[in-house]
Write a structure and sequence with these properties.
By secondary structure, the protein is α/β, with parallel strands linked by helices. It has ten helices and eleven strands. About 35% of the residues lie in helices and about 20% in strands. α1 packs across α2, α2 packs antiparallel against α3 and α5 packs parallel to α6. Bound molecules: S-adenosylmethionine (SAM).
Length: about 290
Amino acid sequence: MSAQTGDKRWTVLELLQWTTSYFTEKGIETARLDAECLLAHALGQPRLGLYLEFEKPASPDERARFRELVTRRADERVPVAQLLGTKEFWSLPLEITPDVLVPRPDTETLVEATLQGLAGKGEEPSILDLGTGSGAVALALAKEFPKAAVVAVDRSAAALAVAERNAEKLELSERIEFLLGDLFAPVAGRRFDAVVSNPPYLAEAEAQGLAPELAHEPKEALFAGPLGTEVLERIADEAEAFLAPGGWLAVELAPAQAETVGQWLGQRGFEQVQVHRDLGERERVVSARRRGED
Ligand SMILES: C[S@@+](CC[C@H](N)C(=O)[O-])C[C@H]1O[C@@H](n2cnc3c(N)ncnc32)[C@H](O)[C@@H]1O
């Protein structure tokens, strides 16, 4: 960031303009937004506050903090959420560390589908979130259903610690049980009104062509195995035994997997198989209801 060194006085606007074009040169698609988020973080203020201070000069300390963030973003391609240590999901501010997947806006489709699936099912649903990561989905559902009892499972102890801290900060920990283990193993013998999951669903061979930012996220959050559908298939196989009759299952997946997963569910104990599209109109979530009376 040589243009920022030396004695020149840099205003907020100049820093933003310089960094936006630097990020653009480096192939970062959300260049202006990233520059704003990082500068606001370095200055310790909300992003929109920058617009009121365009002409204000940044102090040498602020510039040094900003320079380091810009370098890590541009050269190492660290995701902005990891640099800030936070990401909003379903309007909830979540702590993010390299131990958890950065929650994606597309995953809000999973929350929306579950709200539809649980509509009219009473105010106190029991919900199981498999592969909770930062806790994003479990927390959004606990927020939406103020009397729900939620169980959040992950096989990464480090991820669970982040999810637990997020629940404490949002004052939702009393209604969320965090369990360490492999998929359904920690809830043996229990039944839920809804099972939801955003599992790893990439095939290992896809690693080559992915955005460089993904290298900073946990591999076990992204890759399921050689096919990509391994964890989805286990969920489809095992979910019935953990759902109450009439219970609801919803899984996030890659669009190309929707048809196969829908067929698996139809061939097992499920009906009303439905595909839900994300913000970009891609098939992102498959849901189904366990057969039987509720
Ligand atoms: C794609 S991330 C989803 C995180 C979060 N639910 C979200 O939507 O942002 C998948 C998560 O599943 C966890 N995971 C992967 N395989 C698992 C397994 N067999 N049992 C439990 N958790 C698993 C990973 O550690 C990771 O936290």
